[in-house]
Write a structure and sequence with these properties.
By secondary structure, this protein is mostly helical. Helix content is 78%, strand content 0%.
């Protein structure tokens, strides 16, 4: 029994490690850009609209892929034997999408010395937390 849920513990460990990496990177960037004059790629309003739009699209994309994979589970034959690997792949895909957006927003903050993208990083970390792997979700999809 202990080895049967080991994959889920490893999945949660990977989730928390990536969450901490994103948070640590954002905090380091926050300390690096304090007191510097803000630079913009285009102008203040356009920059924030572009990065906010990108963040919303990435959260929407992660949600869409997650829902698509959840719908296709019911149609697959023999999915119970592959439930762990299927769920793990779904979790990794949706978290990779959110993580890539978070790292890009953090890099934009570093390049522009602008704190607004870091504010969006906080929201993206909330979305990352919302997409965390849960036993309840696994049981609902594959149970």
């Amino acid at each position: 029994m202990a080895s049967s849920n080991r994959w889920f513990q490893q999945l949660q460990t990977a989730f928390y490690a990536v969450l901490m990496a994103q948070l640590l990177f954002a905090v380091v960037v926050w300390f690096l850009i304090r007191g510097r004059p803000v630079r913009y790629f285009m102008d203040a309003a356009t920059d924030i609209y572009v990065v906010a739009g990108y963040a919303v699209c990435m959260v929407g994309g992660a949600w869409f892929i997650d829902q698509f994979r959840a719908r296709t589970v019911a149609k697959q034959k023999g999915i119970r034997e592959r439930a762990a690997s299927s769920y793990r792949a779904t979790v990794y895909i949706r978290l990779a999408i959110i993580t890539s957006a978070t790292f890009l927003l953090t890099m934009i903050a570093l390049l522009t010395y602008n704190f607004e993208p870091l504010g969006l990083v906080v929201l993206m970390l909330g979305a990352f937390w919302w997409f965390r792997p849960t036993v309840v979700q696994f049981a609902a999809r594959y149970g």
